[in-house]
Each structure stands twice: as structure tokens, then as C-alpha cells.
Amino acid sequence: MYIKVSSTFNYFNGKYHLLRIYKDARTNEVYLLANNSESAGVYVPFDFTTLKTVDGGFYISCPVFNLKVEIRNKFF
């Protein structure tokens, strides 16, 4: 599996994003969350209405942070 993360966020003054993949042990659901360096501990879920298929995988976006995560079963 190959994962590519891209963003058009303007990184300045040491700002960054944290990505978190969380699996709920009770339901086996997997969550993909992101936050920015200014709100430690506050994560925003990715918007599943942005889920699109691509050659050999899919991508999902987080419009709040201009992030895109692409997952494929072959190299990009």
C-alpha cells in the first residue's frame, strides 16, 4: 500500500498538520483525522463526501486544512 499526502496549506512560523488514524476497538471502525498545530488535541474528521476513486485506490480530502490523502495499491 502506498500513501501520498498533499496540501496547499501555507506553512509558516513553524505551523504543521498532524494526521491521525484511529481504530475503534469496539466497532472496528477506522477514522482519519487531522488538526493544525494551533489547536492541540482538536481533530477534524475528513469529509467522506470527498471520497473519490483513482487508478488502483482512492483519495479523500479535508477541505478545512486543504489536505488530500491518496491511498493506492501500486506506486504513484
Question: If you had to describe this structure to a student in words, what would you say it looks like?
Answer:
By secondary structure, this protein is mainly β. It has one domain. It has no helices and 7 strands. The protein has strands at 2-7, 17-23, 30-36, 44-45, 47-54, 57-62, 67-72. Strands 1-7-6-5 form a 4-stranded antiparallel beta sheet, with no helix packed on it. The protein has a 3-stranded antiparallel beta sheet with strand order 2-3-4, with no helix packed on it. A hairpin with a 7-residue loop joins strand 3 (30-36) and strand 4. The model has no long low-confidence stretch (mean pLDDT 80).
Task: Produce the secondary structure layout.
Elements: E1 2-7, E2 17-23, E3 30-36, E4 44-45, E5 47-54, E6 57-62, E7 67-72
Number of helices: 0
Report, as a whole number of angstroms, the end-to-end distance.
10 Å
The string of secondary-structure elements, in order, is EEEEEEE
Q: What's the average pLDDT?
A: 80
Number of self-contained structural domains: 1
Spatial ordering of strands, largest sheet: 1-7-6-5
Q: What's the number of extended β-strand segments?
A: 7
Strand content: over 45%
Q: Classify the helix fraction into a percent range.
A: under 10%
Low-confidence stretches: none
The major β-sheet equals:
4 strands, antiparallel
The radius of gyration over CA amounts to: 13 Å
**Structural classification:** mainly beta
Q: What's the overall geometry?
A: globular
